[in-house]
Amino acid sequence: MQLRPALAALAAAAVVLVTAPAGQVAAHETASPAEAGTFLRKTRAEAQVDAFFRDYRQAVLGLGDRTPEQVRARYLAPELDTRLDAWAAQHGADPVFRAQNVPSGWSSRYEGSGAGHATVVVTEKWGSGATHDVWFAVRSADLVIGDLKDPPV
């Protein structure tokens, strides 16, 4: 009897429940045995950015069946994709990772929403222990990633 109100609350909040080892979904690093099988809550926008980042990273590493360009075309607005090409040419680095190499891991968090989009922050983790945040704007209507930028100053 108590399950129905809980399920209704989750649906109303538009939250996606993901069952997986915490390290694979939340922080994308190896999970401890205690973390295995935990339930994680992600907004739809956060799940979309997380899927994009995972697919893009695999494509850059040559692990998937798609190229980085194909992954970008699938998840990103065409205008953003064009701006990222310009950013890469100007900075000599990968425009999604904002670096010349590939992060060893990442985590994501929902930052808020308004004006028809949600903001999701991806914290890239590097082998040196350094981190870098990249902010994503996701259109609420269709979950297309419409913007990607460095953190606000």
What do you see in this structure?
The radius of gyration is 16 Å and the shape is globular. By secondary structure, the chain is of the alpha+beta class. A hairpin with a 2-residue loop joins β3 and β4. Helices cover 35% and strands 28% of the residues. 24% of the residues are buried. The strands form 2 sheets. The protein has a 4-stranded antiparallel β-sheet, covered by helices on one side. Strands 1-2 form a two-stranded antiparallel sheet. The model is unreliable at 3-39 (pLDDT under 50). The protein has helices spanning 3-12, 22-25, 44-60, 68-75, 78-91, and strands spanning 15-19, 39-43, 105-114, 117-125, 131-139, 145-149. It has 5 helices and 6 strands.
Quick structural overview:
The protein is of the alpha+beta class. The protein has helices at residues 3-12, 22-25, 44-60, 68-75, 78-91; strands at 15-19, 39-43, 105-114, 117-125, 131-139, 145-149.
